[in-house]
C-alpha cells in the first residue's frame, strides 16, 4: 500500500482501471397495488396503495384515475362492486427514468361482505386478500398457524401430506418451529422484536459526501471526509412526518493527510457537529418535476488544536434547495448556504474575509449514474474558492462493487481550517466515495 501511495504512475494506472465501464440495464414500467390492511370489518375504511415505477430509458406520463371500481368475491360466489376514491387531486404524473411515484385510494368495506374476500381492481389482473370476519372469531387473520413448516412438494408418491422441514432450517429463517403468529399480530410482533440497537441504527443516514481521495501535487497527500446525520424523532407516519420529525444531529469530519513525510502526519482535521432542520420537499409541482426544500441550523467547526494552531468558529445558516427532475432520470439542485458567523475565535477572527457568507452549491445527479457537484465561495479582496467533484458508480464498471469512482478539484482558501487564510493552488485528487 505504501508503494502504491508513493508512486504516482502506479496510482494513475490503478485509478484508470477503476474508470473502465460496463453498462447493463433492464427496461420495464408498470404499477403494483397492495392493501395496507389485512383485516377490516364492514363499514371500516381500507387503503389501496400503488407504486408507479419507471425503469425504462425514457420518462413516462400517467394520469391517476380519480376512482377505482373494486370487485369483492368470496368462496360462496358472492360478488360485490364498490368504489375507491383517490387521496388527493387527479393529475398528470411525470415519472422520470429509474423513479417511482406512490399513490393511494380509500374504500369502505361493503356492509354485506363476509369472510375472506378476494378484492380485484377492475381492469387489472390482480387479486388482493382481505379478511372481513368479526375480529373476535376470525379464523383467517386472527388465528395463529399452529402447524409446522412443511417442505412443499416433497411428499412421497401416494402420500397426501408434505413432510415438515428440519427444525434447524426453520430456526435459521427466524421462525418458530411449533407455530406462526396470526396475520393481525404480525405487524405488532415485528415492531416489538426490534432491538434498541436496531432503532438506534435506523435513525442514522448519510449527510455530506463521504470520500477518500489521493493527490500528488507538492508530494503525495490524501483528503478524506466522513459524515452522517441522526434523526432525533422517529415519525409515526414516515410518509407524513411532523415538524419535529425533521430535526437532525449532524457530524462531519474532514482531514488533509501528508503521505510524503516519514511519519505520515495529518496536516489538519476539522470537526463539524451540527443541529439542523431539513425537509427535502416543502413544495412540489403537480407534475412532480419541480420541488423546493429547506435546511436551517447551526454548526460548530474546530480543529482540536491548542495555542496558535487553534481554530474555531460557529455559524447559523439557512439553505433553500431548488430541485428540477429531468425526464431522463436526473436531478439538478441549486442549494446556496447563507451563513451568519458567531463565536469566532481570535486566532481566526478574519475567517469571513476568506470564506464569505454564502456557499454557492450546484449538484447534478443521474439516477445510478454520474454525479457532478460544484461549490464556490466569494470572500473579500479576491479571496475566492472553487471545489468541483465528479463521481461514477463502481457497480457500472467491471468491478461491480459498491461505492463510486471519485475525482475532486480544489483551488482557493480553506482546504484546511488551520490554513483558512492560505491559498491552495489547483489540485486534482482521485479516489473512492461511499456517498458522492
What does this structure look like?
- Its EC number is 3.1.1.32, 3.1.1.4.
- With 436 residues, this protein is mostly beta strands.
- The protein folds into 2 domains: 30-143, Immunoglobulin-like; 197-435, Outer membrane phospholipase (ompla), Chain C (Beta Barrel), CATH 2.40.230.
- 10% of the residues lie in helices and 45% in strands.
- It is built from 6 helices and 23 strands.
- It has helices spanning 2-6, 8-18, 167-172, 183-193, 196-202, 351-355, and strands at residues 29-35, 45-54, 60-63, 67-73, 79-86, 92-95, 99-108, 116-121, 128-131, 204-205, 210-215, 221-231, 247-258, 266-284, 290-302, 312-325, 330-334, 337-342, 358-366, 371-378, 384-393, 404-413, 423-435.
- The strands form 3 sheets. Strands 10, 11, 12, 13, 14, 15, 16, 17, 18, 19, 20, 21, 22 and 23 form a 14-stranded antiparallel sheet that branches. Strands 1-2-7-5-4-8-9 form a 7-stranded antiparallel sheet, with no helix packed on it. It has a two-stranded antiparallel sheet with strand order 3-6.
- It starts with a helix and ends with a strand.
- Mean pLDDT is 87; it is low at 1-5, 11-26 and 187-193.
Amino acid at each position: 500500500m505504501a508503494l502504491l501511495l508513493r508512486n504516482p504512475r502506479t496510482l494513475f494506472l490503478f485509478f484508470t482501471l477503476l474508470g473502465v465501464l460496463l453498462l447493463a440495464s433492464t427496461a420495464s414500467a408498470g404499477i403494483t397495488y397492495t392493501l395496507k390492511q389485512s383485516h377490516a370489518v364492514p363499514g371500516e375504511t381500507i387503503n389501496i396503495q400503488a407504486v408507479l415505477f419507471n425503469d425504462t430509458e425514457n420518462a413516462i406520463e400517467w394520469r391517476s384515475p380519480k376512482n377505482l371500481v373494486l370487485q369483492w368475491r368470496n368462496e360462496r360466489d358472492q360478488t360485490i362492486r364498490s368504489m375507491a376514491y383517490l387521496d388527493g387531486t387527479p393529475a398528470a404524473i411525470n415519472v422520470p427514468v429509474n423513479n417511482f411515484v406512490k399513490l393511494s385510494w380509500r374504500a369502505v368495506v361493503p356492509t354485506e361482505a363476509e369472510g375472506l374476500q378476494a378484492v380485484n381492481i377492475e381492469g387489472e389482473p390482480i387479486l388482493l386478500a382481505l379478511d372481513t370476519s368479526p375480529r373476535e372469531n376470525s379464523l383467517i387473520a386472527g388465528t395463529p398457524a399452529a402447524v409446522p413448516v412443511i417442505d412443499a412438494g416433497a411428499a412421497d408418491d401416494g402420500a397426501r401430506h408434505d413432510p415438515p422441514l428440519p427444525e434447524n432450517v426453520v430456526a435459521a429463517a427466524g421462525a418458530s418451529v411449533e407455530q406462526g403468529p396470526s396475520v393481525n399480530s404480525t405487524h405488532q410482533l415485528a415492531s416489538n422484536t426490534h432491538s434498541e440497537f436496531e432503532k438506534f441504527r435506523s435513525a442514522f443516514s448519510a449527510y455530506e459526501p463521504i470520500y477518500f481521495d489521493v493527490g500528488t501535487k507538492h508530494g503525495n497527500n490524501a483528503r478524506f471526509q466522513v459524515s452522517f446525520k441522526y434523526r432525533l424523532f422517529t415519525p409515526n407516519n414516515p410518509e407524513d412526518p411532523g415538524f419535529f420529525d425533521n430535526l437532525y444531529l449532524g457530524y462531519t469530519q474532514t482531514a488533509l493527510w501528508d503521505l510524503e513525510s516519514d511519519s505520515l502526519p495529518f496536516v489538519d482535521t476539522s470537526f463539524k457537529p451540527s443541529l439542523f432542520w431539513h425537509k427535502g420537499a416543502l413544495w412540489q409541482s403537480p407534475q412532480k418535476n419541480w420541488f423546493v426544500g429547506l435546511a436551517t441550523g447551526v454548526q460548530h467547526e474546530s480543529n482540536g488544536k491548542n495555542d496558535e494552531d487553534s481554530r474555531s468558529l460557529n455559524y447559523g445558516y439557512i439553505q433553500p434547495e431548488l430541485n428540477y427532475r429531468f425526464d431522463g432520470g436526473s436531478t439538478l439542485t441549486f442549494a446556496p448556504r447563507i451563513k451568519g458567523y458567531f463565536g469566532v475565535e481570535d486566532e481566526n477572527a478574519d475567517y469571513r474575509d476568506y470564506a464569505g457568507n454564502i456557499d454557492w452549491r450546484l449538484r447534478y445527479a443521474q439516477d445510478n449514474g454520474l454525479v457532478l457537484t460544484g461549490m464556490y465561495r466569494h470572500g473579500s479582496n479576491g479571496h475566492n474558492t472553487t471545489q468541483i467533484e465528479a463521481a461514477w458508480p463502481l457497480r457500472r464498471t467491471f468491478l461491480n462493487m459498491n461505492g463510486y469512482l471519485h475525482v475532486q478539484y480544489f483551488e482557493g482558501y480553506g482546504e484546511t481550517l488551520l490554513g483558512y487564510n492560505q491559498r491552495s493552488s489547483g489540485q486534482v485528487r482521485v479516489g473512492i466515495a461511499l456517498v458522492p
